[in-house]
Amino acid sequence: MGTRKLVGRTLFYLLVATIVVYTVFPFYWAVVSSLKQGSALYTVEALPSKPEWGNYVAIFLEQPFGRNILNSVLVATAVVALSLVLSITASYALGRVAFRGRSALLLIVLGVSMFPQIAVLSGMFELVSWFGIYDRLWSLCLSYLILTLPFTTWVLTTFVRELPKELEEAALVDGARPLEIITRVFMPLMWPALATTGLLAFIAAWNEFMFAITFTLSNDKRTVPVAIALISGASRFELPWGRVMAASVIVTVPLVVLVLIFQRRIVSGLTAGAVKG
Fold first, then answer.
1. Tens of pLDDT along 68-106?
2. What's the pLDDT tens digit per position in 172-196?
3. Quick check: 59 and 243 in contact, CB under 8 A?
4. In whole angstroms, what separates CA 58 from the centre of its chain?
5. CA 137-91-81 angle, 5° bins
6. Distance separating alpha carbons of residues 273 and 155, to the nearest angstrom
7. H-helix or E-strand spanning residue 250
8. CB 37, CB 54: distance < 8 Å
9. Which residues contact residue 190 at a Cβ distance below 8 angstroms, ignoring those fewer than 6 apart?
10. Domains of the chain
11. Which of 32, 57, 86, 252 has its CA 20 to 30 A from that of 38?
């Protein structure tokens, strides 16, 4: 029995190690490649023998990459804020208020999140043009809500349904209105779910490419995925992999830091649905 337990534990740790290597190696190789230039990019080394930081300097000197990062931060933050504000109120209505067509509305919300971006691209382009916000950051905020709002609404509705009904009933007895119930009773209990959905929505907005390249035209209005895709070399057939890897590392580090900071809340948010009221 002891041998079988030892073998099982060994296989488990081997599986964990394999998953870690598989997920971390691409980022590690991007860091290594970003510190190489010229022919050194085509040599296989665990660590660069002569680290070069010129790629990191070049991406900021050759294009407004700092402005592109700021654009991504502003857009992703605005999208997360709008998504959470709208989805908190919507989740209360869908999770607590009984009305005709509630289940159908939830299915519609879920169905919208399944639409491929290309299916709504032409309609969004017409809407953006009609509002007169083409080549502005507001066009990205508006279009990204299609990606984040259905997801956040669905997750928070599931969470609100699991909250104890006694809390809401006690608040109603005390004369609380629905908005007060949401802000003073439910929101303090929803922080794990809010952190989880907010972070996932931020990542989705940060990495989005199709809407960003369609609705922005100026270099100073582009977000980082588009800026990285448009990095060019000395000729149209040459792609400067060192600068591309450096830019990829720069835009990945903030996401890694956010996940590390909120990892406990993310786990709590993902497992909160298991708690019954």
1. 999 999 999 999 999 999 999 888 888 887 778 777 888
2. 887 878 788 888 888 888 888 888 8
3. yes
4. 27
5. 25
6. 9
7. helix 241-261
8. yes
9. 88, 156, 159, 160
10. 1-52 (no CATH), 53-274 (1.10.3720.10)
11. 252
Question: Could you tell me the maximum CA-CA distance found in the chain, to the nearest angstrom?
Answer: 74
Question: Which structure tokens are listed for 25?
Answer: 């190696």
Cα distance between residue 277 and residue 275, in whole Å: 7
Which residue's entry shows tokens 């990495």?
207
* Residue 71 structure tokens: 């654009």
245: CB partners within 8 A, 6+ apart: 30, 31, 33, 34, 55
Cβ of 238: how many Cβ atoms within 10 Å? 9
Buried b (16+ CB within 10 A) or exposed e, 185-200: bbeebbebbbbbbbbb
The structure's pTM equals: 0.82
- 165: part of which helix (H) or strand (E)? helix 165-173
Report the Cα 25 to chain-centroid distance in Å.
Answer: 21
Q: Which tokens is 177 given?
A: 């209105």
